[in-house]
Amino acid sequence: MEQPNKQPEESPELKKVIGVFGGSNILIGIMIGSGIFYIGSYVLQRAGMSMGLALLAWLIGGLVTLLGSLCFAELGAMNPATGGIYVYLSDAYSPVVGYMFNFQSMIIGGPGSIAAIAIALPLALKSLIPMNSFMVKTSAIVLIIIFTLINYLGVDTGEWVQNLFNVLKVLPLILIIVLGLFWGHYTPNLSLVPHTGTGSTSPVGFIQMVAFAVIASLWAYEGWTNLNAVAGEMKNPQRNLPRALILSVGFTTVVYVLFNLAIYRALPFGQISRSIQHNQLYLGTAVAQSFLGQFGTILVAVAMVLAMISSLNGMILAFARYYYAAAKDHLLWKSFAHVNSKYRTPDFSLFIQMLISIALVLTRELDELTSLVVFSGAIFNLLSVLAVPVMRRRQPDAPRPYKVWAYPWTVIIATIAFLIILGNNFIDDPVTSILGLVVPAIGAMVYWGFRKYYHADAE
């Protein structure tokens, strides 16, 4: 077994090429995936079929995500190193906590998200191109290989691909929004009163209903933490990281709200209600069909594919940096910290990530992957938000180029939101939630094993 020795000083470093626009596109690409086309149905259903409450849930979800991103902006500007949450948790609590996050990201979070979106992409095309399970999984593996190679060729290459697909996917979304808002024939009822017979109208029941709807919307915002993983490759990260976080979350929130409002303008409430009852959740497709016929169906399919491609590319780019950061701290074999001298990318980390992702494609289904990723990620998002007050107390005089707005309320609200997510997931799927706790616990044992091995070698 190769020993975790230090990197030689002449080892090439990662390139600092990502600006505000590129950083924003990485996050927008990850957040706006296929979920924009169907999660709105879940939000509306959980909001008691009240269009006003559903839009409010989308706004609250965007606000909660923004509050979390502001916390990450302070931490990232304070320590703009490659590795993101891994670095912040190590500084705020202990290196073992940072490594527990890194381990779950290497085994579950990163490869699991990559595998899930790679499987979802061919599944979205099954209505146009008949595919069996073997073809779906083969296509997923090919996609993972292709976009790993793209990101191996340089972070600027991966960023360029991200920018291109983001622009291409946003155009059909904007078309649907414009068609619905300006040519829609219906005036939606935007009152905050739940539809008759959908649940309790007591104050407690109302709050629970809104919270349940917000949780669904937060699934669509998932991925907002990943820009910090490439902070070490950003130009002037102290300034550009906070700007990119705020810009990307703000843009995504506006798109989600307007997209769903366009649906309410374009389709009658009765049709929306019947579609959801019959599990026909892709309401955006219905909007495109109503205006553009069969071309609308094709347009939405293309938009979904572009959305998922940009999400897949952004994940592959960001998640490999966690392996790299751990190896730089001698908590993985030094090969994981290797940087390609020509392309200046963490090549070994990228290819190991690719292999784990392919293994998950072969052994897991889509629903198993997504539920596991959501719960395990929320644990460490919560700890990262709480790292802001911890670091302010521990290092009160440290330079902070950016500080969280409305502190400490920002941290308090974000903390409550993540606790709700964790509680809801644990109740709905306790087995998967327990597995999401077991993997980081194994990571702690791996951490102490590497520490013991490294120090024994040093002696």
From TrEMBL:
Main location: membrane
Membrane topology: Multi-pass membrane protein
Keywords recorded for this protein, A-Z: Membrane, Transmembrane, Transmembrane helix
Lineage top rank: taxon: Bacteria
GO MF annotations in UniProt: L-amino acid transmembrane transporter activity
One Pfam family matching this protein: AA_permease_2
InterPro entries for this protein: AA/rel_permease1, AminoAcid_Transporter
PANTHER family: AMINO ACID TRANSPORTER, SOBREMESA, ISOFORM B
Name of protein: Amino acid permease
